[in-house]
């Protein structure tokens, strides 16, 4: 992974609890989520993708009847410093569950195809200042 703009979001048994993490309430977990990221635009872009994947892991696991004990998503990427075009975003998923490995692999495949923010980034978007 390109670690110039790396972020991690985590929940449950995989939740990060160190002093460098910020904690937020989370609709899918009673103990909330931890976020480890610097506060730059590049980090926030990658955080949007990672956070969406984490949320969708919980949402889709519930729909499939899979109990997640914990989840961690790390995302990273870089930018061409001449144009500030993204060089792409990669992410990894760690899941703690008693479900069979095949079920977890299926869950992660589903999330990769339905996660809204990664889908939007993959398709590109116009960003325009108004007013």
Record the SSE blueprint.
Blueprint: E1 7-12, E2 22-26, E3 29-36, H1 41-64, E4 70-79, E5 86-96, H2 101-114, H3 116-123
Antiparallel strand pairs: 1-3, 1-4, 2-3, 4-5
Helix pairs in contact: 1-2, 1-3
How would you describe what is shown here?
Helices cover 35% and strands 31% of the residues. With 131 residues, the protein is of the alpha+beta class. It has a 5-stranded antiparallel sheet, covered by helices on one side. The longest helix has 24 residues, at 41-64. The model has no long low-confidence stretch (mean pLDDT 94).
Characteristics of this structure?
131 residues, alpha+beta, five-stranded antiparallel sheet, 5 strands
Distance between termini? 38 Å
- Global outline: globular
What is the percent of helical residues? 25-40%
| Strand arrangement in the largest pleated sheet | 2-3-1-4-5
> What is the CA-atom radius of gyration, in angstroms?
15 Å
Let me know the average pLDDT.
94
Structural class: alpha+beta
Low-confidence stretches: none
Work out the strand percent: 25-35%
* Largest β-sheet summary: 5 strands, antiparallel
What is this structure, in a nutshell?
The protein has helices spanning 41-64, 101-114, 116-123, and strands at residues 7-12, 22-26, 29-36, 70-79, 86-96.
